[in-house]
Amino acid sequence: MDANQKSCLCLFDIDGTLTRPRQVIDNEMMLFLKEKLMKKCIIGLVGGSDLVKIREQMGGDSFNLSDFDYIFAENGLVAFKNGVEIAKESIACFLGEEKLQKLINYALRYMSELILPLKRGHFIEFRTGLINLCPIGRSCTQKERNLFAEYDAKHKIREKFIQCLERDLSDLGLKYSIGGQISIDVFPVGWDKTYCLQFLEKDFHNRIHFFGDKTNIGENDYEIFTDSRVFGHTVISPEDTKCQLASIFLLE
């Protein structure tokens, strides 16, 4: 069945929507998407993570880029259609070295002064389309990740960090959003998840459904969730995603 015969496009966040945070998608969810939803809809993935992490979460070596119709890594800065790369943009080229170093130096100073229950390593991750800032350090274990998420929910570590970034680096033209359990995504204004819609809106006008778990103001699904070109759906877990899909598209 080709795109014109299917009712719409379903676009999914990954972390917390199709998988548990930073976990691999389970077989039941993958089969549900491929054997049930795909019969009625075009399917796309959009994540803030790079392609390596998306591939890991979607099954590792068993996952092919052509398994889904669209895959948008780093909010769509790296875009694939039917397994073929259709676009790629670089934050390094866009910002230039002076602005990049201003951001990186500020973030390192700020995070070095944070007192947290624990810290590990890998506090800044440079990706193709964004920079990821992580106060606890991305080399933490899943248990440590969960502990930080609980601490952050109470003490608003990332929220306060973003307020300082917006105040002190207002001249850089950057957007800051809370992503996943432990980090902040940093990207040029307009490079949020709505960036991927330029590859979809012509063919799927008024037929795009987005599903995500971080849809509140300041979270990394908010912009696309509230975009007039999509129907936004807030989910709280992979199980909730499946239930909502079954209800909306009458899947058994």
Task: Provide structural commentary.
The protein has 252 residues and is an alpha/beta fold. It folds into two domains: 144 residues, Rossmann fold; 98 residues, Hypothetical Protein, Haloacid Dehalogenase-like Hydrolase, Chain: A, domain 2 (2-Layer Sandwich). Helix content is 31%, strand content 20%. The protein has eight helices and eleven strands. The strands form two sheets. It has a seven-stranded mixed sheet, with no helix packed on it. Strands 6-7-9-8 form a four-stranded antiparallel sheet. Strand 3 and strand 4 form a beta hairpin. The longest helix is centred in the middle third of the chain and has 16 residues.
Task: Describe the structure in brief.
This protein is of the alpha/beta class and about 250 residues long. It contains 8 helices and 11 strands.
Topology diagram in text:
Elements: E1 8-12, H1 27-35, E2 41-46, H2 51-57, E3 70-73, E4 78-81, E5 84-88, H3 91-95, H4 97-112, E6 124-126, E7 131-133, H5 142-155, H6 157-168, E8 174-179, E9 183-188, E10 208-212, H7 222-225, E11 231-234, H8 238-248
Parallel strand pairs: 1-2, 1-10, 2-3, 10-11
Antiparallel strand pairs: 3-4, 4-5, 6-7, 7-9, 8-9
